[in-house]
Amino acid sequence: MPVIINDGQFFFFICKNRTFAEKKPKTMKKSSILILIIICLCSCGKSSKKVSITGEIKGLGTDTLYLYGMDESFDRIDTIFAKNDKFSYTASIDTITSAFLLIRNQTEYPIFLDKENQIKIKGDINHPEYLDINGNIYNEEFTTFQKELTSLPTPSEKDLEQKAEEFIMKHHSSFVSLYLLDKYFVQKDSPDFNKIKKLIEVMTGILQDKLYIEQLNEAISLSEKTETGKYAPFFSLTNIKGKKITRSSEDFKKKNLLINFWASWGDSITNHRSNAELKEIYQKYKKNKHIAMLGISLDIDKQEWQDAIKRDTLNWEQVCDFGGLNSEVAKQYAIKQVPSNILLSADGKILARNLKEEQLKKKIEEVVTAAEEKEKQENKKKK
């Protein structure tokens, strides 16, 4: 709202960033004053929605950077061209936005944007994991956080998580807390959902209202339903021959079941390593009556799925509904990445999730040995 000052000769209309002066005539009509007030109000109401970024990363040279959002408030990818280590960028922003700056197609660096911000970035291409960014409180908070991490000699994963937790507990309404929650606690092979829920609980309304938190709470709810010891959700999926396969299909009855979630579009190196491990397990237990294997693909293209099965010689049962990560079975089993695995008991309980290499082999051996021992005891009783 403007402040109107009458000094007898001039009317002064004062609002944010602007002052208007109008000489007062001897007989100034009320309508003229009203028009002037309206003009002032309109001028005062206009505020820039632009955010500007200027930066210099030593050693970057001539390159292309990419800016894309972490959430729904910035759902696009912008290109930023750098020349002689320097770059600049301007965009329209409606509200506080969390984004990533992609450097050399390798390093994703978080940056927080808001209207009227003038953000400055300094760094060195030899250390792209640390940039000095200012322009608003969130960038400054994250810069300080990164400085603390670089002061640690050789931090372990536990050390990093502890630092992130300390930050979140002290900064209940910081958008940096959302980023740290995702990086250090959510994006893990086996997230600690109890820990995540406690960290979410300390966050204030501005963060609680974010779509990311809503989706995270839904994911936690689904994951809790598929924790170790819970009964596995029912599924019915089509195999490569067009036949419907369920948990109670003939080949799986009274058997422990290793389910592998995979996709032909997954990282080729990771897929190769996982497939090699699974083929070794299959060769060892394919004639064993106490365990079976099932591959559930999250492919979206039928031909690519079939080609991958043939190319990689995945000879155990394979099924797919071509829904990708949004398929119903992926949601039911809280699958967030591929490859993933789940081991079910003969009665359908979840025994383990996402075991790696030797851990998986050891667990399967334990399960099969236990089943064989149980069978022996039952046979003795019959005699």
Concise structural overview:
The protein has 383 residues and is an alpha+beta fold.
List the helices and strands and how they pair.
Layout: E1 3-6, E2 10-15, E3 18-23, H1 30-45, E4 50-58, E5 63-69, E6 77-83, E7 86-92, E8 97-103, E9 107-113, E10 118-124, E11 131-133, H2 137-150, H3 157-170, H4 175-186, H5 193-201, H6 205-208, H7 211-225, E12 236-239, E13 244-246, E14 256-262, H8 268-285, E15 291-297, H9 302-311, E16 317-320, H10 328-332, E17 340-344, E18 350-353, H11 357-382
Parallel strand pairs: 4-10, 14-15, 15-16
Antiparallel strand pairs: 1-2, 2-3, 4-7, 5-6, 5-8, 6-7, 8-9, 10-11, 12-13, 12-16, 14-17, 17-18
Helix pairs in contact: 3-4
Task: List key phrases describing it.
Immunoglobulin-like, elongated, disordered N terminus, 7-stranded mixed sheet, alpha+beta, 4 domains, 8-stranded mixed sheet, 383 residues, single chain, 11 helices, 18 strands
- Please write the string of helix (H) and strand (E) elements: EEEHEEEEEEEEHHHHHHEEEHEHEHEEH
> Could you describe the largest sheet, including whether it forms a barrel?
8 strands, mixed
CATH superfamily annotation of the largest domain = Glutaredoxin
CATH class of the largest domain: Alpha Beta
Number of discrete helical segments: 11
Q: Please identify, by name, the CATH architecture of the largest domain.
A: 3-Layer(aba) Sandwich
